[in-house]
């Protein structure tokens, strides 16, 4: 047992913190208010290597471990969860999925550009009637010999209008149920592929969430990921790692709100002293710090499991379940510590509170995480 981060981990953490404080903090309130995608900031994140952190350097990635990724995700999410969801999807769903299961041609063609952020990717599983019940895919991919004909609608897709590459899950053979599902690489601009309406969201408002429509899109056979029928396992396996990223995002939202609450409580005076001198505030800060530390340890443990090639399905689900709960609770308390100031935008905590909610919903709701955990326990 060794709780010590390496020099390299500390350097990545410091670089992410520096980037978040200098590049993401300015304008974050306005981007949230006007639902503005952080395009310039995402470009810089790509140049600094934050969009393909764990990808092998031979495909232009950073070659880092999952611990580094968790540390960077926490720092970026403290400030701008709209930017960190782009980072999470690109790193742990799109890049990881392609690197693990793609062909060499697919990696050369797509991964090499995704890893540098030259282009970004999207992961398309959710549908109007298939969220938690992910096997009920209505999007169809009919096998036409040397291509598949893709038809259907996807919902709530992160990077919906900014991605260039979309990993799309679709049903090829309904009789085979989940074993008839495939995953495809769909390029922006393929005929019949249309980006639908942008969602007007409670939180992560700077991120770009859209529905997508596919009408007779011809997807070349070489764009299928894995063997015929591998699509559902591709989605499940990819999401298992994605959940570590979202857990780290939730951790960052919580620790960002906590840091603001500590700072404010040392500045604001009430009844003649800084509010940090009142036990009511001290107890809140103690609870926040304890919960955040527990969430951080769960995130790092899941990352450690992944890095050491152990099963990380359950530890990732536990990390996401717990960290997202801590994010919700901590941000609500951080608003309370700020009192009336917490309720207005300038103090950041109301945004973090709104951003926290999605971490209990996407990449598997808290209820789904409990299914994943309990199945593992009762195996
Ligand atoms: N890695 C690889 N394969 C996996 C897997 C994983 N983590 N989890 C499940 N599978 C495989 C199973 O082994 C099974 O394969 P076989 O039938 O060949 O043995 C197959 O996938 C189906 O698994 P299962 O029977 O467990 O599927 P269920 O329909 O019962 O669904 C849940 C399981 C509910 C856990 C799954 O549908 C799920 O995670 N849903 C949430 C999806 C989600 O996160 N949606 C959000 C969209 S992305 S923002």
From TrEMBL:
Sequence ranges assigned to domain Acyl-CoA oxidase/dehydrogenase middle in this UniProt record: 122-217
Domain of life (superkingdom): Bacteria
Molecular function GO terms recorded: acyl-CoA dehydrogenase activity; flavin adenine dinucleotide binding
Names of the cofactor(s): FAD
Enzyme class: oxidoreductase
Entry EC number(s): 1.3.8.10
Family: Belongs to the acyl-CoA dehydrogenase family.
PANTHER family the record matches: ACYL-COA DEHYDROGENASE (PTHR43884), ISOVALERYL-COA DEHYDROGENASE, MITOCHONDRIAL-RELATED (PTHR43884:SF12)
Name of protein: Cyclohex-1-ene-1-carbonyl-CoA dehydrogenase
